[in-house]
């Protein structure tokens, strides 16, 4: 069955499930239920077109190899490779928000969103399903990065409970930034514009951070921006959770964000969702008017 037919089947399932008496299911339960249906539909499309995951797999491998072996010798050799993986994780999961922007824009361009809007289903659920299904890409990217890290000498130095908690925080961050991609897609409405805007903001956010260097080494106001950048917090929390130390000679970042990286990263995730989830839903309601 082609992805197009799968889409029609998913729409039919949403319509069937959603036609229930009003008041029986709360708004939250309805959003979760419809979001699950949309997520299954999106995952079916990915399963039938696995080429969509090529970027999510190839990109982190290239970044690991380039930064570890091209720049790693200058920045600290094998010690830098230990430090690097946390930054690659934070950067890649941030970059994966562009998948949400592109594929939601494609659904909008092909009229799939219009069909969803015509059905008696939760407006939140449609966008929620997109962000849920894109977690699959983030899971694949995360596993690929960890495998690459192990191949180049990266090791975990903490207990399994800390590792599980760190992975959970990383996926929470991936889910949060996917809402930014949803806002971009629903605002741009064009696949080309969504792709451009979905990548444009990622480079300054990821590279003016502590993902690959110490924020303390950056000049002037860039240092303060990097210290409070959520990407820095996620990268630092990943390093702490996996027990990876910075190379000798790295200037240690100071301040509350560095000393409380896991807490600050989690708070940033909550803040991103609190801001961009309502914006995405509001923009979804305006689509087609």
Automatic annotation (TrEMBL):
The chain crosses the membrane at residues 50-71, 83-105, 135-157, 163-186, 198-218, 263-282. InterPro entries: ABC2_TM (IPR013525), ABC2_TM_bact-type (IPR047817), ABC_2_transport (IPR000412), Nod_factor_ABC_transporter (IPR051784). Pfam families: ABC2_membrane (PF01061). Residues 51-287 form the ABC transmembrane type-2 domain. It is found in: Cell membrane; Membrane. It comes from the Bacteria. The keyword DNA repair does not apply. It is a multi-pass membrane protein. Keywords: Antibiotic resistance, Cell membrane, Membrane, Transmembrane, Transmembrane helix, Transport. Belongs to the ABC-2 integral membrane protein family. This is Transport permease protein.
